[in-house]
Design brief:
three-stranded antiparallel sheet, four-stranded antiparallel sheet, flat, mainly beta
């Protein structure tokens, strides 16, 4: 049996980032989509589809979506041939490679 690539775990799902470098230096968020992609699979706190955080810098209701902090201003997110995720950070001048190993 062949092992799945790390990216196979995320096939058909969505990654996005916070539009500002705060909180946490620029968060990367992960949204799991249902099988035929009509809606997101979310934590019960987000069933209303609104992250009702008390302050802009809080991610209390969004924390279940957090893939990681400190990505800065992200200009591109791509999946490579290996299935790894590549995140381009303009602020840090780097390309982060993320695997699920």
């Amino acid at each position: 049996m062949r092992a799945e690539s790390p990216g196979a775990l995320f096939k058909g799902d969505l990654f996005t980032k916070c539009a500002c470098t705060f909180p946490g230096g620029g968060h990367l968020f992960y949204f799991n989509l249902t099988e035929n992609r009509p809606k997101f699979v979310v934590d019960p706190r987000l069933e209303d589809r609104v992250a009702g955080n008390k302050h802009k810098v809080d991610i209390i209701e969004s924390e279940s979506l957090l893939a990681g902090p400190n990505f800065g201003t992200v200009t591109d997110i791509e999946t490579g041939p290996s299935g790894n995720l590549f995140v381009v950070s303009l602020d840090y001048g780097v390309i982060h490679e993320i695997s699920r190993r």
